[in-house]
Design goal:
The chain is mainly β and 343 residues long. It has 2 helices and 24 strands. It has 2 domains: 119 residues, Sandwich (Immunoglobulin-like), CATH 2.60.40.1120; 206 residues, no CATH class. A hairpin with a 7-residue loop joins strand 8 and strand 9. The longest helix is centred in the last third of the chain and has 12 residues. The protein starts with a strand and ends in an 11-residue tail after the last strand.
Length: 343
């Protein structure tokens, strides 16, 4: 695990760092440092909360090393412990995050130190392509017009058909951001651009940082470990089970199958519906009865990981009623630093 050592020489009873961007943010911020007569002489109390330096989300399951003593923060991200002031070494560590160290900190006797800790996700700078999200549009009634606004989380790198690019004001000082819109129609359950050009689906791709596999509350990965020779059968049965039609299923397998033939084993995790908002949001007028979304994350390995454990997913069936969409895409995380399959 990568390590960064931060040396802090503090000559005042308290010192604070401003909350800055993730690239400039210090590994911790002292909230308060106060004298309390009830604390045992020669000791101090340290308490606080641990956050992701980029997202400000609370982190749990963080190991804290105070000298030779080990602690864990709780489910609310908080920690509290007492230590001798002679201890001048604190370490905060969590899987897939860069360790933060505090050395030579001048802890004072009979003081309570409240501190916010920030850990840097090792994934935050690595970019991944969100590949081939395609959106099939269906309706049991003709729609002369519907507006589809695409809001990618990362950087948009390709799209088809051509998007209308506009500008949206985001604050009172005149800053703007781009908007991406398709104006489409549906006739006889077929998708049209400008009422004349028939399309099988809407297509976009983006590139973004910070993509990782989801875990369960017991810290297991959600998904399935699949041998390459069983890959097509696995995808076919999974997509059939959730309700893909023959075209959607064929499009999915013929796109991803050839890209998943390099390694002998694949860990595969599916994200559905709201879980896919980490890649893009859609605003559609009129509002569909349902936007079915399913994205596949995968990691390849040539050797079978005997000690790897994962929890099989239970996926929801698609809802096909009225005006609805089916959206699928995927991300190859084989090169991710969130190594889950050890060769």
């Amino acid at each position: 695990m990568k390590r960064l050592i931060y040396l802090f020489f503090l000559f005042f009873s308290s010192f604070s760092f401003s909350k800055e961007s993730m690239h400039e943010r210090a590994p911790f911020e002292i909230i308060s440092n106060t004298y309390e007569s009830k604390i045992t002489k020669g000791r101090c109390i340290i308490e606080g909360t641990i956050y992701d330096a980029e997202t400000n989300q609370i982190l749990t399951e963080v190991t804290i090393l105070s000298g030779t003593k080990k602690y864990k923060n709780d489910d609310a991200g908080k920690f509290k412990f007492s230590q001798k002031v002679s201890v001048k070494y604190l370490n905060f560590s969590k899987d897939f995050y860069t360790d933060s160290y505090v050395e030579d900190y001048a802890f004072k006797s009979k003081h309570r130190i409240k501190v916010d800790i920030y850990l840097q996700n090792q994934q935050s700078e690595r970019q991944f392509n969100v590949k081939k999200p395609v959106v099939y549009c269906y309706s049991d009634k003709d729609l002369d017009f519907f507006k589809f606004e695409l809001k990618p989380i990362g950087d948009l790198i390709f799209h088809y058909p051509k998007l209308f690019v506009g500008l949206e004001m985001i604050n009172s000082i005149g800053q703007t951001k781009p908007t991406y819109t398709w104006n489409m129609s549906l006739k006889n359950n077929k998708l049209f651009e400008n009422d004349t050009i028939e399309l099988p689906y809407l297509f976009w791709e983006s590139r973004q940082t910070g993509i990782t596999f989801d875990k369960t509350s017991t810290n297991e990965f959600k998904g399935s470990l699949v041998w390459k020779k069983n890959l097509v059968d696995f995808l076919d049965s999974t997509l059939t089970e959730i309700g893909f039609n023959s075209k959607e299923k064929t499009d999915f397998i013929t796109f991803w199958g050839p890209q998943m033939w390099e390694y002998n084993y694949y860990f595969i995790q599916f994200l559905q519906d709201d879980e896919c908002q980490k890649f893009a949001n859609y605003e559609i007028e009129p509002k569909p009865q349902k936007v079915n979304r399913i994205y596949m994350l995968f990691h390849g390995s040539d050797k079978y990981p005997y000690d790897f454990k994962c929890q099989k997913q239970v996926l929801k069936p698609l809802t096909r009623k009225g005006f609805y969409l089916v959206d699928w895409g995927g991300i190859d995380l084989t090169e991710s630093e969130q190594i889950i399959i050890q060769d």
